[in-house]
Specification:
The protein is mainly beta. It has two helices and 34 strands. Strands 6, 7, 8, 9 and 10 form a five-stranded antiparallel beta sheet that branches. 53% of the residues are buried.
């Protein structure tokens, strides 16, 4: 059962108001929701998404059935050798797609045409050393890209660019790139846009910055960086910007969880300074399964966090986020023994479907999840082949 299809009429009564509050997301996704006679009626439009294919050097268009979540493969950009596209970000106008090319040290700018068809917009922009992940600030003004190896032996940094709304062209801001400690990979904004956090897998840390909306400059938050755990590699922030979660796939767990490897660190976010404080009970882990490498928080206030591990056994860890403390509590029957994939975890714009990228399966796994229990159920036909392992995924609509 999906996020918008509740298990019972009573549960629908309890969640209807919350769904109306999240209506902005629903409208943007082309969906409508009404609550009549204790029942929820949801209609969803089909979606499109892009995934990078690092091994073959191109970007693939995906078409997603809004009712079932089924994925069909669309056109892909021409193969580009010695490029290795990884992270990607979509301009708010949906006219431009930015792709970080890890091997070529460039950022490609694609024009997004009718039905999501991509055409390369001129010569790629020079980036930092080892561009990895890309994100656009909530105002839609700046593109941020993590550079794993950094510039001039800095050990890792973040490049910040303004984006021309007419052409998509990038201009690096003053002071960029900004040092971000050793080997930054994942990057995420708070929903407010005030703060930015990155993971540093090689040193098991998380680094935080305050973000200037006027200049794009990054300034370290107090106490940054903080120790998270071995291999820190993925980030998730709750819908209210109160808590930051970091997946530590190589962390060794103390008793009684010594049989598992890997956990999730939880931090509270100071709303004024962006400083992080480890929360009580952190780190959190599962009773079975190893090496969580991707995280996502379900939208719309459901309070569910999912951690995904490579492989097929106990590959999805599900948690509820405790109101007031941020502590993670395992969902009933979690971890779930489903076909997973540790490359990424994303939820569609409406909040109906969870998708994960799989290295071993060369494609996508897709799930619905129950609103009352959070339990995921694999979508019919999944996993869906993308031909080669996807690197990152972003929704067009």
């Amino acid at each position: 059962m999906s996020f918008l299809r509740a298990a019972s009429a009573a549960l629908i009564d309890q969640t209807c108001f919350r769904r109306i509050l999240s209506g902005a997301v629903i409208v943007l996704a082309g969906a409508s929701l009404s609550c009549v006679n204790n029942a929820s009626v949801a209609t969803t439009a089909n979606h499109s998404a892009f995934v990078t294919l690092p091994a073959t050097g191109n970007v693939l268009l995906l078409n997603i059935n809004g009712a079932t979540g089924t994925v069909t493969v669309g056109p892909r950009t021409p193969v580009a050798e010695n490029v290795t596209p990884r992270g990607l970000a979509l301009h708010p106008s949906k006219k431009f797609l930015y792709v970080a090319n890890a091997l070529a040290n460039t950022i490609s700018i694609f024009n997004v045409g009718a039905s999501g068809i991509l055409t390369l917009g001129g010569t790629p922009t020079l980036a930092g050393n080892g561009p990895n992940a890309a994100v656009i600030d909530p105002s839609g003004t700046y593109l941020l890209v993590t550079n794993v190896y950094g510039s001039n032996g800095s050990g890792g940094d973040i490049s910040v660019y303004t984006m021309d709304s007419g052409t998509g062209a990038l201009t690096e801001v003053a002071g960029s790139p900004f040092p971000a400690n050793t080997g930054p990979t994942a990057i995420q904004f708070t929903h407010s846009g005030k703060f930015v956090y990155v993971t540093n897998p090689n040193i098991g840390m998380v680094t935080g910055f305050s973000f200037s909306p006027s200049s794009g400059a990054l300034t370290s938050v107090p106490g940054s960086p903080l120790i998270s755990g071995a291999g820190a590699s993925a980030l998730a922030i709750d819908v209210d910007d109160q808590y930051l979660y970091v997946a530590n796939p190589s962390a060794v767990n103390p008793s009684p969880n010594q049989s598992t490897v890997g956990n999730i660190s939880g931090f509270t976010i100071n709303s004024t300074t962006g400083a992080l404080t480890p929360m009580q009970g952190s780190p959190f882990t599962a009773s079975e399964g190893n090496g969580p490498t991707a995280l996502t928080v379900a939208p719309g206030g459901s309070g569910f966090l999912y951690a995904v591990t490579p492989g097929t056994s106990y590959s999805i860890w599900g948690f509820s986020i405790t109101h007031g403390t941020g502590q993670l509590v395992a969902l009933p029957n979690s971890p779930f023994s489903l076909s997973g994939g540790g490359l990424f975890a994303v939820v569609d714009p409406v909040g109906n479907f969870l998708y994960t990228g799989s290295q071993s399966g060369n494609g996508l796994s897709g799930y619905t999840y129950d609103l009352s229990t959070g339990a995921p159920t694999i979508i019919g036909g999944a996993p869906f082949s993308t031909g080669s392992a996807p690197g990152a995924m972003v929704f067009l609509e």
